[in-house]
Specification:
- The complex is a heterodimer of chains A (268) and B (630).
- With 268 residues, chain A is an alpha/beta fold.
- Chain A has helices at residues 50-57, 80-86, 103-109, 119-122, 128-146, 162-174, 192-208, 220-226, 244-248, 251-258, and strands at residues 10-21, 24-35, 39-43, 65-70, 73-74, 88-91, 180-184, 212-216, 229-234, 237-242.
- Chain A is globular and about 60 Å long.
- In chain B, strand 1 (22-28) and strand 2 form a beta hairpin.
- In chain B, helix 1 (6-17) packs across helix 2 (37-53).
- Classes of the chains: A alpha/beta (268), B alpha/beta (630).
Amino acid sequence: MGEGRVKEEIVLKGEQITLSFGGITALWGVSFAVQRGEIFSIIGPNGAGKSSLYNVINGFYRPQKGQVIFKEKEITHLKPYEIARIGIARSFQNIELFKHMTVLENLMLGRHIHIKYGLLKSLFYFGPCLKEEVQHRKRVEDVIDFLEIEHIRKKPVGTLPYGLQKRVEMARALCLEPEVLLLDEPMAGMNLEETEDMARFIIDVNNEWGMTVLLIEHDMGVVMDLSDRIMVLDFGEKIAEGTPEEIQQNSVVAKAYLGESDGAFLGR
Amino acid sequence: MSADTFPKLLLEKAKKYGRRKIALREKDLGIWQSFTWEEYLEKVNYFSLGMISLGFQPGDKISVIGDNKPEWIIAELAAQSAGGYGTGIYQDSILKEVAYIINHSETKFVIAEDQEQVDKILDMQEELPNVKKIIYYDPKGMTKYDSDLLAYFPDVIEMGKRYEKDHPGQFERNVENTKSEDVAWICTTSGTTGFPKLAMLTHRNLISMATNLGTFDPKYDTDEFVSFLPLPWVGEQMMAVASGLLFGLTVNFPESVESAQADLREIGPHIMFSPPRVWENMCASVQVKVMDASFLKRLVFNTCLPIGQKWSEYKFEKKAPPLHFRLLYTLAYLAVFKALKDRLGFSNIRSATTGGAALGPDTFKFFHALGISLKQIYGQTEISGISCVHKNSDINPDTMGEPIPETEVKISETGEILSRSPAVFPGYYKQPEETAKTVIDGWLHSGDAGYLTPEGHIVVIDRIKDVMSLIDGVKFSPQFIENKLKFSPFIKEAVTVGHNRDFIIAMICIDFGIVGNWAEKNRVNYTTYTDLASKPEVVDLIQREVEKVNKGLPDNAKVKRFVLLYKELDPDDDELTRTRKVRRHFVEEKYREIIEGMYRGDDSIRIEAIIKFQDGKTSTIRTVMAVKNV
């Protein structure tokens, strides 16, 4: 990894976030701070509250207590589309794409928050609208090139193999031009080769485009290889945070996963 | 003619066409980006000077490794302009081979496409003492590299611009100094064992080849060509570089390997030269699509195809079809073939050729049925790729056509095909003893057994060392039988054995994709290739295919027994060459147990084999292969 990639600036911060549904507490006073340019992973057993935390960050859920701060501004009460607009994009665990539309159409749609012309203006397509459309297409094509999905540009998403759909899902998030990218199990259900490809794309997005990446992933090998820092959740509580080495040696973390103090599993 | 080298030809064409005509086109970001001849020249000019400012000297060599992109041939011409030359490396070569080629050719600069290729070279840095620079052209993933060896292609072009300010006219003087007898490029040619041989080809070799081929198979400066086959292959050098510069073709580069078929269709080339496997794959993909089509579509296709095949037979026999048949063919053409041609990207095709290995007559006939005038090319890398081709008016699927102008072909006393022309190479790089074995008294020894027909066509039987005879003396060509088998879309690869034996057997590799598809439709569950190949339903399927093939073979050359091999043949396991020809002796040696079992009359063979993966891991496969009598 290169020097000076991670900046001092805290780009995304959670303070004492507590979220409960009726009697069930999904998150219990979780605090964290992500630096600009970092790959920050969130791990934990099933039901630990990882996806809930994402839902809080991008405005799907309102926490009962605590706040989310993005670039020193509180965003806890913004709507999901407003959060997307200020620069936090998310790719979903269960692919959320329009299956009957082509890859290109899906990605162009991903640009909608940046489209400035309105209904009236778009009636006169030529001129400013066309110019804007070309700019959006350029950006979409950069993402297509980056993720190496040129050959499926015109294919309906529903006809693609799962591994490629996941890649398109990530592409859609990238088309938003976010500063922070939330990835939710990007490697789930992939074979070894696809996993390695995806890992390389995540490193490239982070290195080349300087994007801050939050990563939820169950493949510990991947998490340990990619992450700068890792936060561990268990039953909605943060039980540890640190570098991959620190987490591998943490006995509390091992306990949360296995119910006993055998930490060898984390090394793969 | 004044322009007797490629750099001179480039200069001449740039003067002639300037900004008015497109020389190169590359699909990038979803759009076809064009370079005019003037821009093409400019890039070669500056890149050449840029390399010189980095220390490239006359006689130095480059190695290029990457997908087909304009930068590939710009680098090639830049090296030639600077008085050097180089060689291309297949991207899927194993590291040992990459290192061998770079070291044996004493490469000074490596031109590598992207991070993946750069990593290969950097990892082997210590083993490659001659390499002084690695120039890459796809910057993705490269920002964090800080090796002194690395340079970025556009930066080298900038260096060239600065160099020109201090040395005006240098490039033109360098080009003026290139001579037709200079080595222009090295093409690697697969040795049957071990490392590839490096065949040097001069400007004169390549230009005379392209000129003479052009008299039989004319090309025009309005023609489009799509470059999607590996550029290290002599065939691609023939078309994209030699013919491209000589005739002023527009050379198009697809966006990626995966999108090549779609890009081909967008361009609709006039010229295409591909090895048999490309034609076979297209033919197989049509057959599969037909299988998947609705009843009505299938009916129409199956009615029209025999009409097309009959049409091609008329053509091969050089007879004029009767009027009513012409009408029938026109109907079939309008109903099926016209649309099919368009789908395959052949709407504009005028010159379609195949070469590098033998193409089965059935595949050949299939393309003629569509109205594509496919012709056979015969030649070796050592004769710049070509000595014989079909004339447009005289196509015979069983022959390789006639010698092109300035080319003599004769058969030696041992039945070997010999050829002589200005395109015969000066030798293998630093391997004079190999050269002496190949070119004797100016005659290139092909190693192919063949004969000349009374019409002067050449017929290739097989590699001399591959022609076999059964114990009762019956001669047969394994390749001929294998091509017949491979015409079945379900069969990817086949190896027949029978030398000094009682009968012929075959080891068959199924096409995983197509048979897998078939299995899904027929509710056969499978997991891996090995598992699929051992399913009784699949064995029965292939048995039917083999029976079909046997009908077209003489009685004493029928396949009597076969097995479905538990793995695909793979160049990484040395079973195939990089151009996917079977290394017969190696395969026979490797699968000796299976072959012996088949001749012993076993009805099944138990296999325990170690499989090596690309990342170096191994695993053991245990399976039982059924031996089938046909």
